[in-house]
């Protein structure tokens, strides 16, 4: 009887942003509709199955299967015996998630009011955006290639200068001195430009694009298959580091998906080899900062509500990830000076009472990261 009276309280907090966040994990294998992915579509799941069963199955599906539950075993067999990872969620969080699924991925009105209104894009607008994204990717690749060719340019010009100087003072094949002087001046100017660029880029890795141990395409996974960044980078909202996906996480899909659309079986076989050997895949970190710089992903993603692309560029368009921005101190400071903080709707900033008062009194129209101390030296440097 007590449970009957408690149920309205449990459902009262349904469809929250926390449920939306928890759904990101589910979305890698399930749709909110009827179409099958790695697992079944979840439309109408709360009508077909008892809530208590769903809570137990979501928390630990293997435990339910091993108990001999007929329907759980049937699901397991039907979907190629792929185990659903256990979820460390409370009953309330699972009920919240089920409400989110039941309502087609919609937040409750009190939460949705604070969310930006999504505008449906026309097919023509989408095509235009795709073309612009492709053009941006092409320009990035041109910049990368130009950056890689700087060393070659430096060596060629240096050799030409040495030859010209040798001819000017020793061989004297070219009689007109203005030719020597012109070539020397142009060569010195180019070398100075290369030296300046190399000096300003010292310790930075813009356009760094290492070859990974497994050819992994973000274009296929993030854009075509719509896998959320946070499904693979699981600690991005709660840790300093975004984290690399484990072999087990890759196997959630690639236990079934055994052949890639571009690379065939070769690259996916490497995942299975790592799984069978128990050895982790040694992914190479692309975005690196100097050791004296402190950067926290949780601070920027969970608190600052920043989109991954603001620092990492259009990763979903990349077959091989490349560092797009230079990640210099000036670049970070400019961002802190111009980025407006979601101040009034974010509980993290409740401690800044004076700024809240100024905002409500109309003395300020917005709060930037700089206003809350984002450009103080000790915030980023040990």
Features:
382 residues, Cytochrome Bc1 Complex, Chain D, domain 2, 53% helix, globular, disordered N terminus
Task: Write the SSE topology.
Blueprint: H1 2-12, H2 17-26, H3 45-48, H4 51-59, H5 61-66, H6 70-78, H7 91-102, H8 109-112, H9 123-148, H10 150-171, H11 177-200, H12 218-224, H13 229-232, H14 247-254, H15 266-277, H16 297-303, H17 309-312, H18 329-338, H19 353-360, H20 377-380
Helix pairs in contact: 2-7, 10-11, 14-15
Give me a quick take on this structure:
This protein is an all-alpha fold. It has 20 helices and no strands.
What would your notes on this structure say?
By secondary structure, the protein is mainly alpha-helical. Among the domains are: 2-112, Orthogonal Bundle (Cytochrome Bc1 Complex, Chain D, domain 2); 149-206; 328-382, no CATH class. The protein has helices at 2-12, 17-26, 45-48, 51-59, 61-66, 70-78, 91-102, 109-112, 123-148, 150-171, 177-200, 218-224, 229-232, 247-254, 266-277, 297-303, 309-312, 329-338, 353-360, 377-380. The radius of gyration is 28 Å and the shape is globular.
Predict the CATH topology of one domain. Answer: Cytochrome Bc1 Complex, Chain D, domain 2
DSSP strand tally: 0
Strand content: under 5%
CATH superfamily of one domain: Cytochrome c-like domain
For the largest beta-sheet, the strand count, sense and barrel status come to: none
Q: In the CATH hierarchy, what is the architecture of one domain at level 2?
A: Orthogonal Bundle
Supply the CATH class of one domain: Mainly Alpha
Unreliable parts: 1-12, 115-119
Please give the count of helices.
20
Mean of pLDDT: 84
How many angstroms separate the termini?
A: 57 Å
Instruction: From the alpha carbons, calculate the radius of gyration and give it in angstroms.
Output: 28 Å
Q: What percent of the residues sit in helical stretches (DSSP H or I)?
A: 40-55%
Please provide the ordered H/E string of secondary-structure elements.
HHHHHHHHHHHHHHHHHHHH
Coarse structural class: mainly alpha
Characterize the overall form.
globular
